[in-house]
Amino acid sequence: MRKILISGASRGIGKAIAIKLLKEGHYLSLGVRERDDLFNTPLDPKINNSDSFLVHTYDATDQNSSKKWVEKTFETFKSVDTIIHCAGIFKRTKLLFNDNEMKDIEDLWKVNVMGPWILTKHAWKYLSLSNSARIIVLVSMSGKRSKGNLCGYSMSKFALMSLCQTMRNEGWGNGIRVTAICPGWVNTDMAKEIKHYPKKDMSQAKDIASICSNLLTLPNSSIPFEISLNCQLETNI
């Protein structure tokens, strides 16, 4: 069983992944902004009161929060061999943004890029000891192409994809394998304002959870760097 850090586990894709991996018996350390968000869910720490389950406060914009979470996880599990980065934010910032939207751009950068970067940095020495560590990053199809006018969000996801490539390069010799998962629309709260496409026809969070579960069973020699999935046909990528 793996010893896994999962960010953004209180909702959406992160929550679906955490629930599936919990059922499969992995050691889970969940990083969330508000512990209360997990109450009365399958991830409620009151229900999962064991040495293989940890919930820790995590703010992707706070380096100290990241460091404390990693250290507490190592102290509890005695090792860390997997990170699944699911924390992220969505903003509709356009190329010609208003002056009052500058903070939105800064937040996109801090959460979507620097958050995974810093968390990975803090866990790197532990991952390097495993010889078969895994880093799975929920990037987005917006990290592969810019569609429409979502300039700020797409910018952050392109940068995140670049970060994934560098993590792969840096970690390869120590057995660290990186996979960037790039979905289109997924039926989560992030897509709740999408009216032109039925939620039932979108990719489902539980299916992405199954992909992550399968990745954890593959040997170092067979880990894909990138997995793209989309509920809509795109012919220009």
From TrEMBL:
One of the record's GO molecular function terms: oxidoreductase activity
Source organism: Prochlorococcus marinus (strain NATL2A)
Record-linked Gene3D superfamilies: NAD(P)-binding Rossmann-like Domain
GO cellular component, one term: membrane
Family: Belongs to the short-chain dehydrogenases/reductases (SDR) family.
Protein known as: Short-chain dehydrogenase/reductase (SDR) superfamily:glucose
Presence of keyword Phosphoprotein: no
InterPro entries for the chain: NAD(P)-bd_dom_sf, Sc_DH/Rdtase_CS, SDR_fam
Keywords: Oxidoreductase
One matching Pfam family: adh_short
Domain of life of the source: Bacteria
UniProt key word Oxidoreductase: yes
